[in-house]
Amino acid sequence: MQKEYIHILECVGHGVWEWDPIGNRITLSPQWVSMLGYEYETFQQTKDMWMSLIHPEDLNYCLNELTSLLSGRIKHYRHQHRMLCQDGSYKWVLDQAKVVAYNPHGYPSKVVGTHTDIHELRTTVEMYKQQRK
Asked: Which EC numbers does the record give (predicted)?
């Protein structure tokens, strides 16, 4: 059933990710990778690679919010930020996540999330704001 949910999310344009913060392992769906123009078969699926793709101006906020999620200060992570595409451009995504499993000591052991491509929407809103000035 889990694969069916991933397929449904990908059908509506969401890239899916799963993170094990204890083992520091991340798994990205093919849609997540291709949304940014990378080849799934050759993409290095590591947390360091994932973090390196976040725009430098957005990275600290993302890291702070993920820390808040892991510590339990927030229950749902939701943030718009830019991701580096294979062609060197940046694309706006809506990143959402929540902790879905804990180890016996109460520490988060699985975080799942989605990326939604909001680049066109975000660009249109920015153009509208500029025209209104």
From this structure: 2.7.13.3
Range of the domain at 39: 2-132
Domain of 103, CATH number, reads: 3.30.450.20
Largest distance between two CA atoms of the chain: 55
Q: Using CA atoms, how far apart are residues 113 and 117, in angstroms rounded to an integer?
A: 13
107 φ, ψ (degrees, to nearest 5): -90, 140
Instruction: Give tens-digit pLDDT for 54-105.
Output: 999 999 999 999 999 999 999 999 999 999 999 999 999 999 999 999 999 9
* Of the candidates 75, 55, 38, 53, the residue with the CA atom closest to the CA atom of residue 122: 55
Mean pLDDT of 20-27: 92
Contact 117, 35 (CB under 8 A): yes
Split into its structural domains, the chain has a count of 1
